[in-house]
Structure formats: structure tokens, C-alpha cells
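Changelog-linked ticket: adenosine-5'-diphosphate example.
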Amino acid sequence: MTKTAVPNGLPSRPAFQAMPAVAMVLVVMLLGVLLWLLHRSDVEEERLTLIKDILWVEQNIHFHLTSDEEKLAQLAADLGRRSLSLELFENAGHALIANNPEIQRLTLRGDDGVLSVAVPPVQGEPSGFVPGEQAPWWPAFQLARSTGRVSWSQAYANANNGMVFEAMVPVYQDHDLVAVLSAEISVDSMLTHHVPWWVAEKYKIEVIDQGGTVLGAKTGVQLTEPGASHQVRLEPPGQGLSVVATIYASEGKLVRNVLAAAIFILALLALSSLGLVRRHLRRRLAAELALSQEHAFRKAMEDSLTVGMRARDLDGRVTYVNPAFCHMVGWQADELVGRVPPMPYWVPELLEDTLRMHHKVLAGNAPRDGFEIQFRRQNGETFWALVYEAPLIDAQGQHTGWMASVVDITERKAAEEMAHQQQEKLQRTSRLITMGEMASTLAHELNQPLSAIASYATGCLNRLGADNFTPEELRPPLSKLVTQAQRAGQIIRRVHDFVRKSEPRLQVCSLRQVLADALSFVDPDARKHGVAVVLDKQVSEALVDGDHVMLEQVVLNLTRNGVEAMSGLPPRSRRLEVTLSAEGDSARVTIRDHGPGIAPEVRENLFQPFFTTKAEGMGMGLNICRSIIEFHRGRLWFEPHPDGGSVFIFSLPLRSAA
Ligand code: ADP
């Protein structure tokens, strides 16, 4: 009853039980797809923004360089007009550098490339290269000189190891090339001043040359993880330069990852809690099933009880009755539950007594060993019940009422009454037996002293009548008469003593021995009457619970009656047959004589006390015999023999069957 394993009787798991799990998995999948789509759209948007931003950066730089180019062209024109005025060059140069921080230096070179003057001034060649083929700016210089237009050099590392590129503008005076104005633009400065901070916060902006070498870069923070990048050419006005923007690992990605992880963890938690809930549910179901089985078992027990059960609350109201109780009183449970005294099954005539006992029970003073009470069935019949009352304690240990077990003891009472009556009958029988024995003993034993007394008294009377006596002559017969009278008294005392001791004693008793002993007593009598007694033992032994002497008395009586009944027959026919046999659980003794039998009118009174057809008979013999046999739970009866004569039979329960 206390097993925790899921019993076999659990209802099979229907498909809908799996639905929460399926729904959960679908939700997780949906969220995953949603996240992926979001991610894709984010990436796309990021890419578009990147392109937009890098184009904007390129435009911005382009705008500044173009503006530089125009300003340089203007200065070159002014210098041409003012015959390369040094003052103009220095003043305009300083102003140009101050307003355009990406320009590091302005130089004026002769048409052979040799440096004439520089702002700010410098010792030696600022580019670190002598004019000529080796100088990285030489092609641009030549191009400017030959085309008469602004030309841009490739980028190179100058004397200070800074990455620069130059804008070369030819200076004409009266259509003659007199010099070449050059502006040295620093890549780093260009990036620093023309890439705004908010772009640098989002991207790493680099300027690369044709070979992909990074010439300068601007970043807001350190790159954690390289993201998407986009490259835009910076030409014109730069030469062979490109701007590259690379996205930082965005925070959005981190948030998205955290979100995805959170969704995944939440889904896992939801699934595991779903599993837990299901396990809990299964355990609960199993417990409920076990409980209902337990309940059914207890109900079956209650229903199959033969003892009536009745519960009452503290006010005496019936709260429960079991079927046995209903069966006992004849009312249905719903007719009894909720009733308060007086109950329908109380006997109206005993209302006061019953109510008194009811209050005694409610006060907790019911007899511990139960009490007997009379109740009434619905059909009006009363019956005796044995009731045990006990306090009803609930699961919290609270005393909530009284529980009674009620047993119908009517049959037991009847059996007790019968046993009581039997006992009384037995005592009566015993007294009767004693009386009969006493009477017959007295009759036999007193006969002799009384006849002696009578004859002595007659002798004395004769002497007195003859008138020839002396007192001395009368003394001996009179003293003998006294002696006889005393003897009669002794006999009576002895009989009295015998009677007091003659309580029946039941013990293992051999019927074979009873017959042997009884027949040995009857033998002299039989011989006197010329009767042959034949004993036929069909069983070697028959043991019964009985009083040997009393059973002997029965056999003695029956055989004496038989012997006496055959006294008038011719000697050949005087035959008494005694048989010991067994039939089923009983031993049987049959005593058959060949006498005249018993007339039908005599048969009716045969076992009545004091019924006799004999002049000297007591008429107690057969009555006592039947009482003795019935006392031994046996039966004694008479049967006429078809060939004449009487058959007396008694049967007794065999010991093993008792
Ligand atoms: P009693 O022998 O003193 O008369 P019993 O009770 O023994 O008393 O017998 C009652 C009567 O039953 C006897 O008087 C007799 O008439 C009749 N009776 C008993 N046994 C026999 C028998 N074997 N054959 C014929 N009559 C019998």
C-alpha cells in the first residue's frame, strides 16, 4: 500500500500531454528564426550604413583636398603675378597651413625640382629625397610641370617618417613656368581633422595605398573583433589612395547574443520545469491512485465487516454507519446519518435506559469492556447488541466523536439462555436421577430391615395377645427391632451420602467397558431368570465423553427390563442380544429382547416418570435412562422388533467427532 513506483493502472499518457513540450520547442525554434532574421537584417543595415558612412567620409576628405587644391591654385596664380614674392609665399603659406591643418608644409621648387623656399622653413630636403627619378614625388612634379595643372604625388614616408603625399601646382609668370608650388599633406592629420569622432567611434578608418599598405588610421577604441569593412577609392585628388572602414564588434551583436543565450536558457529552464511538473503530476497521479485503491480496500473491508460500525460526533449525531450496521437495524445509511437521539433503532420502552447510556458514552464513561443493550430493527423486532465505544480521533489528533462497534448477540444470548436452561434441566435431571436412585436403593435396601421390623413387631404383638409373656422375653425381639430400625436409618444416611457425591463426571469413557461392567452385574439376575445374554461387538472400541457409572446404570436398566420382560417365555426363547456398533459419528448400543413387546398405548408413556406396568415397579428407569443419554448429547428410543420383542437403542457422539 505504500509503494511509490508508478502503478500499472496509471492512465496511458494521451497525446495532449506532450503538447506543452512541443509548443515550447516550437516557440524556441520560432524565437531562433526571429533572432536569425533580426541578425540578418541588422547585418544588412549595418553594411548599408557602413557604405553610406564611408562614402560620406570619402566625400568629406575629397571636399577638403579639392578645396586645398583650389587654394593652392589660387596661391600659385598670386605668386606668378607677384613674381614669386617671398613675403606673399610666407604669409599666404602660414595662413593656409593654419586654416588647413592637414597641410604640413608648403614648398616652392624651381623647374628643376630643387627646393627654393619652404613654410615652415626647413634645413635640407624635407621629403628626404633629392630631386630626381628616385624621389617619390618626382612623377607628380614632372606631370605638373608638363601639364601645367595640379597633380598629386603618391604617398611616401618623408624625412620625419610621416606618411605624406603632395599636391604639385605649377607657377606661371607671363606664361612661363617659374616654379612648382607643393603642399605636403599628412595622412594622419588628414584623418584626424576630416574624419569626425562619431565615425571613428563606429569604425576603424584607414588610408591605404595601391599595394594595400596602411598609411594612416583613425579609431575610437581598440577593435575587439574585426567586422565587415568597405573600401572606397580617394581618387582624385589623391593618387592611388583608398579609404577603408572596418566596423567594430557592435554592442548590438553582444546584446543579441546575450538575448539568444537568455532565450535558450529560459527555454531550457521552461522545458526542465515542464519535466519536473510532469514528474510531479505523475507522482501525484500515482499517489492519488494508491490513495483511491487504499480507500477502495478500506471501503471493501468496512463493507465486508460483519460487525456493525457507527460513528457519532461529539453531540451524538450519527456521522457514519457501515452496511453491517444497516443490515442489523434494517435502516438505510442515509436514513441514519445526521440523526440525533432518540435514534429510530432505540427500543421505545427502554428509552430512558438507552438515553442514560447514550449520555454516559458522550461523557466518556462508557464501560471499557463494552455493554449489552437492546435495539430495535425496522420491522419492530428487538435484538441484543454488544457495543464497544471508543473515542474517534482524527488525523490532527483531535477528538471528534465516538466510534462504536456493534455486534448482534441475540443468538449468543439465546444460546446462553439455552445453555442456562440445559444446565437447569441437567440439575433437575441430576436431582431426578438421584431421587430415582435413592428411591430404588431405599426400596431395595430398606425392604429387608423393614420386613425384619415388621416380623419382630408381629412376634411381639402375638406374645402380647397371648398374654403369656414376661417383659424379659420381649426385650430381645424389641432390641433386634431397634437394631433393624437403626440399620434402616444407616441405609438412609448412606443413600444420602451417596446422593451428595453422585454429581455426573464426564471423562473419556469406553462403551465396550461400560457394556462389560453392566453385563457382569446383570449376569446373576439373568441366570436366575434363565436368560442367555449375548454380546455382539461390531466395533472393537467406541470412546465417548461420559460418566461411566451413569452409562452403566442405563445399560443395567435396559437389560434388567429385557430380562424381566422374558420371564414368562419358554426357557429356549429367553435370549437377550446386546450389540455395540458405530454409525457415522455416533456409537450405538442396541438391546433386544424376545419378550411380548410393548403395546402401542404403553409406548406413548414409556419414558414418562413413574410410569410402570409392574406391580413393584417404580416407573423411573426409562425416564432416568433417557435423561442420562440426553445429558450425554445422545438419543434413546424404542423400536418394536418385527419378529416380536422390544428393541431399545441409544446412540452417543463418538469422541473424535465431538
Ligand atoms: P419399571 O421397570 O420400574 O416399571 P421402567 O421405566 O423401567 O420402570 O419401565 C416402564 C415400563 O415400560 C415398564 O413397567 C414396562 O411396562 C415397560 N417396559 C420396559 N421395558 C420393557 C421391555 N423390554 N419389554 C416390555 N415392556 C417393557
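Closing comment: Example verified and attached. Residues 557, 561-562, 565, 593, 595, 598, 602, 606, 611-614, 617-619, 621-622, 646 surround adenosine-5'-diphosphate (CB under 6 Å). The two ends are 43 Å apart (CA to CA).
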